[in-house]
Design goal:
about 15% helix; alpha+beta; about 280 residues; 4 helices; five-stranded mixed beta sheet; seven-stranded antiparallel beta sheet
Length: about 280
């Protein structure tokens, strides 16, 4: 038997390395659920996935540690067979059952959790010429398919499927700041690189006796009515989880000391208002 290792994008003949446990006590009951995935966790998994599938696990087997390269401490690598229930993104598989490898935490006593019968969501790539095999995008790219998680995942997948949605951010190109005619008036523009043609523009406008206003434009046209992205949206994720804490040394900054100082101040404002990008996955 040969199955796919998703995150390595290769196959492994597991044969003797597959340990089927069916006796009493071989598996522990399913562990209590950990903290729910954050929006960033969901986006990290969904963004690179070719297929997002809800499945019900029908069978599991353990790979021996010697056949599980890169396995993290406190985890076990499972070979899973599952029945597709719903295709959340991508093209529905043609097979009645799918198989994949996944790393899951062991219980406090070191026993393997029993996952049979559970409904989960997997984030994967399809395997050429293998309609029954999936390649997970990460060793742990399997999450519970509880109603709350599905409700949070659905709008994210819709945004990712929109060709006009916010693109990935690949770097900071320039940051410029210009002082206005009035005291305390200025505008800073941050140009971000993305795979889409043309930069993404983030601007901060300051006016006398008013709080600074910043916005983002995802096209070459400046959105005069733009606003900061709402938390837990794809636009927020693209910025909050991609922009570095500090401007990189290679970024083209304003050369005038006063302009540079404003640019650094306004970048700090953007980062502060975006907030942290929390993740629970290891």
């Amino acid at each position: 038997m040969r199955i796919a290792i998703g995150w390595k994008r290769r196959t492994l003949a597991i044969g003797a390395g597959l340990a089927l446990f069916s006796g009493p006590g071989a598996f522990a009951a399913a562990p209590p659920p950990g903290p729910p995935p954050t929006y960033a966790d969901l986006a990290d998994l969904a963004d690179p996935a070719q297929l997002v599938l809800q499945v019900r696990i029908t069978r599991q087997a353990v790979l021996e540690p010697a056949r599980s390269p890169g396995l993290a401490a406190g985890r076990v690598r499972l070979y899973v067979v599952a029945k597709p229930l719903a295709t959340l993104a991508g093209q529905a598989p043609q097979a009645k059952a799918v198989q994949y490898l996944v790393d899951v935490p062991v219980g406090p006593d070191g026993r393997v959790p029993r996952l049979g019968g559970q409904s989960v969501v997997v984030f994967a790539h399809t395997v050429p010429n293998r309609p029954d095999a999936l390649q997970l995008v990460a060793p742990d790219a399997q999450i519970s398919a509880d109603p709350a998680t599905l409700a949070r995942l659905s709008p994210l997948l819709a945004e990712l499927a929109d060709p006009g949605g916010p693109p990935r951010i690949s770097g900071i190109r320039d940051i410029l700041s210009v002082e206005g005619n009035l005291a305390g008036e200025s505008e800073t523009q941050l140009f971000l690189d993305s795979p889409r043609e043309g930069p993404v523009l983030v601007s901060v406008v300051r006016r006398p006796d008013a709080a600074p206003v910043w916005s983002v434009s995802w096209s070459e046209l400046v959105d005069q009515a733009g606003r900061p992205p709402a938390p837990d949206t794809l636009a927020w994720y693209r910025l909050a989880c991609s922009l570095p804490d500090r401007l990189p040394a290679g970024a083209n900054l304003a050369s005038d000391p006063a302009d540079r100082s404003r640019a650094l101040r306004d970048y700090a404002l953007i980062k502060q208002e975006l907030g942290a990008c929390p993740r629970t996955r290891g």
